[in-house]
Design goal:
Helix content is 57%, strand content 3%. By secondary structure, it is mainly α. Helix 4 packs across helix 6, helix 6 packs parallel to helix 7 and helix 8 packs antiparallel against helix 13. It binds acetyl coenzyme *A (ACO). The site of acetyl coenzyme *A (ACO) has 19 residues, from helix 15.
């Protein structure tokens, strides 16, 4: 008897997790038991990562020790040389990040903290080298989110900027059995090492259907430019049978709850900067997109996902769209590692089946007779 094949493993439960839970019909997300809406705007990223790894929020002493460990990772010379060479040959930042992470020499005991500490340093160094600027090492006195913006720009971020980035990091740190997390768990299930799991996950994240969506989402907003162009632009995309980036989700059949949290953070940030132009345009594009998706794809229940307001928020923070996928990796790294730890405890190799649909009964023909 043949089992039913679920393309894309839709609806298949592949693991148990204590890290995050999703209700796609109600548009709810919980992170280690806390609601997204409560946790994301209030926690610092260090608290969030600690919570995922230890199952509980840290006290002051634990938090300070964890923060200090995360911000004490410095770029080694051999990794900087590798980044320089990759930048010179025009590699994309996400590919540079993969190369650089793979080059790290990690002690097992410190590998998890080192990977989370290293990722923002590598991304910022890549950006600065791409722009012919000197690399900035982390400031051990700064928090994780502040440090990332500081290493990118060389300027200390405002409190509003750091808070917006913390909200983004917290909202995006983990999200059930998404493609990159599943990849990390599959690699871990073979008892391979942490770095291999993370590098595999990064490869899955970079795809435009997963972590690569915000860059084209921002490009869409910039091409639309003014409210009157929104409807014809979106119609055009849908008429061509293309996908609108930042919309649709396998799990959510209503608006992705992260979109609301990120929209709120982006709006606050724009108000703080005194320019809500892009945010106002995004709001309008969102409502047109949702209306037209229902017209062109009736009944598919396609709504805004997290990546749409990610584009606005990161752009307003001064992060280049070339770094959007890398910035996603900065936070998701902590989520991947938490899943790897869960998978280690399960210790059973992933080994699904495939149904053979190829030719049968073929006969071998020697090379000279083909
Ligand atoms: N724009 C236009 N049509 C869409 C979109 C979209 N964004 N998303 C889905 N559809 C259509 C599909 O073409 C399909 O139409 P059909 O029934 O006529 O064939 C139907 O809706 C169902 O789509 P599926 O491909 O079955 O949806 P799936 O669950 O496989 O895909 C995904 C989910 C990949 C996120 C999809 O919605 C998409 O491509 N969105 C755009 C990319 C994006 O924003 N990705 C970020 C996701 S969030 C994250 O990764 C953090």
């Amino acid at each position: 008897m043949t089992n039913e094949i679920k393309e894309g493993l839709e609806g298949v439960v592949a693991a148990r997790t204590r890290l995050s839970g999703i209700d796609g019909e109600k548009g709810k997300l919980w992170l280690a038991g806390f609601s997204l809406e409560e946790l994301a705007p209030n926690a610092h990223f260090e608290e969030m990562a600690y919570l995922l790894w230890h199952g509980q929020l840290p006290d002051c002493e634990q938090l300070e020790a964890f923060r200090a460990r995360l911000s004490s990772w410095f770029l080694p010379g051999h990794t900087q040389s590798l980044i320089e060479a990759a930048v010179r040959t025009g590699q994309k930042p996400i590919d540079v990040l993969r190369l650089a992470l793979d080059s790290l020499c990690l002690e097992d005991a410190e590998a998890d903290v080192a990977l989370v500490g290293a990722t923002p340093v590598i991304v910022a160094a890549t950006w600065r080298l791409m722009n012919q600027k000197p690399v900035i090492q982390p400031d051990s006195g700064l928090r994780f989110a502040e440090n990332f913006l500081y290493m990118l720009s060389g300027r200390r971020p405002t409190a509003a900027m750091a808070c917006a980035l913390d909200t983004y990091f917290n909202a995006m740190v983990d999200h059930g059995m998404n493609a990159s997390t599943f990849t990390a768990r599959v690699v871990t299930s073979t008892r391979s090492d942490r770095k291999s799991a993370i590098v595999g996950a990064l490869g899955a994240l970079k795809g435009p259907l997963h972590g690569g969506a915000p860059e084209p989402a921002l490009a869409m907003l910039q091409q639309i430019g003014i409210p009157d162009r929104a409807e014809p632009f979106i119609r055009n995309v849908l008429e061509r049978g293309e996908r609108l980036m930042g919309f649709g989700h396998r799990e959510y059949k209503v608006r992705d709850p992260r979109a609301a949290v990120l929209a709120q953070a982006a709006e606050k940030l724009c108000e703080d900067k005194g320019d809500t132009g892009l945010f106002d345009l995004a709001r309008l594009v969102e409502s047109e997109a949702v209306r037209l998706l229902e017209e062109y794809k009736p009944g598919r229940r396609l709504f805004t996902n997290a990546e749409f307001y990610t584009a606005v928020l990161l752009h307003e923070l001064g992060v280049s769209s070339e770094l959007f996928s890398c910035t996603f990796a900065v936070t998701r790294m902590a989520g991947w590692i938490a899943h790897c730890r869960e998978q280690e405890a399960v210790d059973r190799i992933f080994r699904p089946q495939s149904e053979y649909v190829g030719c049968e009964g073929r006969e071998w023909v020697d090379l000279g007779n083909r």
